[in-house]
Every structure is written in C-alpha cells, then in structure tokens.
Write a structure and sequence with these properties.
Elements lengths: L11 E4 L4 E4 L12 H15 L6 E4 L2 E4 L9 E5 L9 E6 L1 E7 L4 E4 L2 E4 L2 E2 L4 E2 L4 E7 L2 H14 L4 H6 L5 E7 L7 E5 L2 H5 L4 E4 L4 H5 L1
Parallel strand pairs: 6-15
Antiparallel strand pairs: 1-2, 3-4, 4-7, 5-6, 7-12, 8-9, 10-11, 12-13, 13-14
C-alpha cells in the first residue's frame, strides 16, 4: 500500500528546456523498464536509416524494430510466443514497423503456490497472477513496448480496445485457460489470419493494417 501511494503519472514533471524530470513526491522512483528497450531499439533503427541503411532490424530481447525487408522477401519473420503454448505457433512478417511482446513466460516468481508475473498491476501493487501474453505491432518501438505491458495488465478481455485506440497499431493477446490443461485462447485484430496460422504481413508505412481492417 505504501508503494501504491507513490504511483501517479501526474506527479512526474517534465522539463524539456533542461532535459530533466522531476518527481514531485518524496520516495518516488521512475522505472523505464516498460518502455526503455522499445525506445532503444527504435533509436538504433533510426540511426541506421539516417546513415543510409534502410534495410535493417534492431532487437532488444522482446522489443523489435524492422526497416525495409530483406532482398526478395516481404518482411522479416518474427515468431510470436503464446501464453502457455509449447511452441510459438504464430509468425509475423514485419516491415517498417515495431513489435513488442510481454508476458510471464520467462519472468515470474511463485510464492505459496501462486505464480506472480514481473509485470506489476498498479491497482494492487503486486505482480499479475493471470496468465496472459501480448504482442503489439506499432509504428514505433517505444509505443509498442508500452502498449504490450499495458495490454498484459488490462488482460485478455480489455487489451484490444486499448491498443485499437492508437492509430496504426495491432495486437495479439493470448491466455492460458488453466494452469493444467494448457489450452490457449487468442484475441487479435485480424482473428482469421491469426487462427489459420498464416503469416501476417505488416508494413505500417503503406498502411497495411488500416487496409486489412
């Protein structure tokens, strides 16, 4: 409860002129773990483009930014891991877009038989206990990274409405039905493509997502 009293984005003051951030309540800390890797991957891709290398791919763990596709191909192949699934099962063909995945497949802790994710629910102050994984496709890495974490917090039933409120984005959300049966449910913007396991070609510079909708 003490930590929750320090959670409030309105208590973060930005000073662009001095490139500074001020936290307005004593004891507050700022953790950029939910956006930092996506931003770094995007900056790496931006630098390569600025140096005349448009055909590029930057990856920091689960945060990826793709430039133009490899020669003779429509995109970079990215495998998507689903919550509770034994194998990824889904592939994206990514071009000129960013994708970030978040979930508790690898980062979690069990306490008294309860599995807690490394993703903290701000409403409770503790790690998530529902098994969910989210993959977000967006125009830029920092946006994809932030939305993927937020989608996990919102859960299977509400994540798509959040992501769809941002232009040019898409989301695949999966959940494990129970801890024992391993069944996976999928929610996605283009469900027919996802469920058929066919590749999803994404090129946001050509508005592919909007055209498919």
């Amino acid at each position: 409860s003490d930590a929750r009293r320090l959670i409030d984005w309105r208590l973060v003051e930005l000073d662009p002129a001095h490139r500074a951030v001020r936290l307005l309540k004593p004891g507050m800390l700022l953790d950029l773990g939910g956006i930092g890797k996506g931003y770094a991957a995007q900056r790496a891709a931006d630098v390569m483009r600025a140096r005349g290398i448009p055909r590029c791919f930057a990856a920091l763990a689960g945060d990826l930014v793709a430039g133009d596709p490899p020669p003779g191909r429509s995109g970079w192949t990215v495998a998507i891991e689903l919550a509770g699934a034994a194998d990824p099962g889904l592939n994206l063909l990514l071009a000129n877009a960013a994708v970030s995945s978040s979930g508790d497949t690898e980062q979690f802790i069990e306490v008294s038989g309860v599995r807690y994710s490394h993703i903290v629910d701000p409403s409770t102050g503790i790690g998530l206990t529902h098994r969910v994984a989210a993959t977000v496709i967006a125009p830029r890495g920092e946006l994809a990274d932030a939305l993927a974490s937020a989608a996990c917090v919102l859960g299977f039933d509400h994540a798509t409405s959040l992501v769809d409120s941002f232009p040019g984005t898409g989301v695949i959300v999966s959940r494990q039905a129970t801890e024992t049966d391993g069944a996976v449910s999928i929610s996605a913007r283009d469900e027919s493509d996802v469920l058929s396991r066919s590749p999803i070609v994404v090129d946001l510079l050509k508005h592919a997502i909007e055209e498919k909708d």
